[in-house]
Specification:
The protein is of the alpha+beta class. It has 6 helices and 7 strands; from the N terminus they run αββββαβββαααα. The strands form 2 sheets. The chain has a 5-stranded antiparallel beta sheet with strand order 4-3-7-6-5.
Amino acid sequence: MANAHPPSLRYRMLLSATLVMLLFLSLMGAVLDQAFRRSAEQGVSERLLLHIYGLLAVTEQQQGGLNLPDALAEPRFNQMGTGLYGAVLEPDGRELWRSASALDLTLPSAEKTSLFSGLTQGTERFGRVETDRGKPLFFLAYQVSWEVSGEARAYVFTVLETTDTYASEIAGFRNSLWGWLIGVVVILVLAQWLVMSWGLAPLAQVARDLHAIEEGKQDSLQGEYPAEIAGVTRNLNLLLASERAQRERYRTTLADLAHSLKTPLAILRNEASAAGSQAPSTATIDEQVERMDQIV
């Protein structure tokens, strides 16, 4: 069974270029995705910090502690199910206040500890926690020092928000990003195919010229070729000319040989014809055979 032909140059180059583009665009997509995620998380952190500033603005000092109004300017704090929660804690984790939206919010003890543990005055912490239902929340905890009854006390203001909006933004960005990247890959592959077809056209011209030479329609490669293969085509033409000259020499030599053998063969034919009436001349036959042997 004959071996299959190896892949063409166009196929090899197109496959290599496609693989390189896929690798590059995949890495670029991963980098852009990571950058957008960080940017989105930074946006969430800044938004939660603004909510904390809003809570600080409406916090009032009262005898023995702080007081926050029942209804806040941000309506999402005022009703359950909005996905935005607020709370004020002491550094030891004791809860002093929570928004109306957080009345049904329950955090495991380990998750709740991450809201206040290790914070110092004027510092903030951004991260994620899991509710008792396994639903992730973003949180931003900010510790402040408040003078109450002539004594400076530390409080941790915390705002939590569901990750639904963040996840929706990430999903939308990924769909758009990978849709555009796939479109770019298709366009680049088509462009690469056109460029390769144009770049390899001289080789196709060489193949057509060689086929014409094989069929006897032309004697040499006659196309205009780029510098990269001009040397090859020139050497091929020299080789074809040399082969043609050698073939002509062979033809001339064989013609001379045939002409030289005609006379001895004619003599032998005459001797054979005369053999019917008398014995052929052995000397004549030997002479003509020797002559043909020398010619050959």
